[in-house]
Amino acid sequence: MVLAVAACAHASPSTSSDTLAETRASIAATNARFSEAMKRGDAEAVAQLFSEDGEAIPPGGKAFFSGRQGLRDYYAGRMRGTRFLDVVLTTVSVESSGDLAWETGTNRLTVQAGDAVIPDPPG
After folding, report:
1. Are 55 and 66 in contact (CB under 8 A)?
2. 97 membership: H or E segment, kind and range
3. Which end of the chain is more exposed for a tag (fewer CB within 10 A), N or C?
4. Which three-class secondary structure state does DSSP give residue 120?
5. Whose CA is closest to 47, among 20, 77, 21, 74?
6. Are strands 5-7 and 55-57 parallel, antiparallel or unpaired?
7. What is the rounded CA–CA span in Å between residue 90 and residue 31?
């Protein structure tokens, strides 16, 4: 199982009148862009989905990667020698308070490293 947590990866709702459904739709669209960028091996596009102060906790959770440059470097390193064949992000819940929204969910990755295709069980 791979567990990755990202903070500030989604734009917060623009006004307090945004509905939770609109927020969910925005998160789903960003998740789709993240998945496509990962499958293309485009670390720059992945990093641009995060806010300037975004953070990610990689699998194993032993360090944080912060800021767009740090995230770009982290994802470029993950993509070096590994091809992401499938990236599925599943939103379990979305909550909000004022102009802040957060998502919890799971991910499933299928990667190719050399000749081996490695399915990652749902996390």
Report:
1. yes
2. strand 82-97
3. N
4. coil
5. 74
6. antiparallel
7. 9
Instruction: Tell me the fold of 5-119.
Output: Nuclear Transport Factor 2; Chain: A, (3.10.450)
* C-alpha pair distances (Å), 18 with each of 13, 24, 62, 109: 6, 10, 35, 31
Q: Which one, of 116, 113, 96, lies nearest residue 12 by Cα?
A: 96
Helix (H) or strand (E) holding 77: helix 67-79
Name the token pair of 66: 């912060």
Let me know: does 103 contact 89? Beta carbons within 8 Å.
no
Q: CA angle, corner 60, sides to 59 and 61, nearest 5?
A: 90
